[in-house]
Amino acid sequence: MTTLKAEPEFIRQTNVLETLVRHWAFWVCFILFSFSYPIYKSVYRILPPELPIISKVPDFQLISENGQRFGSADLRGRVYLANFVFARCPTVCPKMLGELQKIQKRVRGTGKKVAIVTFTVDPENDTERVLFDLARKHDANPYVWTFLTGSDKEAMFNLYRDGFKVGVEQNPKDMFDIAHSEKIVLVDAENRVRGFYAFDTNSVNQLMIDVGLLINRPSTKE
């Protein structure tokens, strides 16, 4: 009778990695690293350079779409986005206001830290009632987005040119033709102009980044 020889038993060798993973000390180190590395990165991260200080906007007081006096004192301590339109504008202004409506949704998580201010370049026509209708048309939140007009057109134009550093000019031969800036002006909590942005996607995304920098980093004094 033939006796079968038993096959030698195969013993699998445990490699170094498996041994390490099975050890409790590995998981202690892993958990500590997982929690500490993000903290280290946040503490030692390199922030983008400070935005330039372009100009200081002088104190102003105008009239809001609700018929209330509103000005730089009401904006003190808030970063705000300024833009310039007029209600009779048939082309670029409706597009800008539509984009600002989207931007309003993007800044709503900032609470009272960010405001949007739309200045009319046609105060003779853009009364409080006209601006009120314009604000409602674009679902403007009155706690975030304010529309401003005034009675002194020359003083308003000087504010736009000298304070916000934007161009504005009315064609003396055509009262409906008002050349004005098509940019968003970023103003910090100390009422200083810090940047100009177009309404295209890339520019608006950069604007949102810069808004975040201004509201999250200590103020830079002049």
Low-confidence stretches: none
Radius of gyration (Å): 29 Å
- Strand order in space, largest sheet: 1-10-9-4-5-6-2-3
Series of secondary-structure elements, N-terminal to C-terminal: HHEEEHEHEHEHEEEEH
Under CATH, the topology of the largest domain is which?
Answer: Glutaredoxin
Broad structural category: alpha+beta
Major sheet attributes: 8 strands, mixed
CATH class of the largest domain: Alpha Beta
| Structural domain tally | 2
Indicate the proportion of strand residues: 15-25%
| Mean pLDDT, all residues | 84
Q: Helix coverage percent of residues?
A: 25-40%
The count of DSSP E runs of length 2 or more, i.e. the number of strands, is 10
CATH architecture assignment name of the largest domain: 3-Layer(aba) Sandwich
First-to-last CA distance: 104 Å
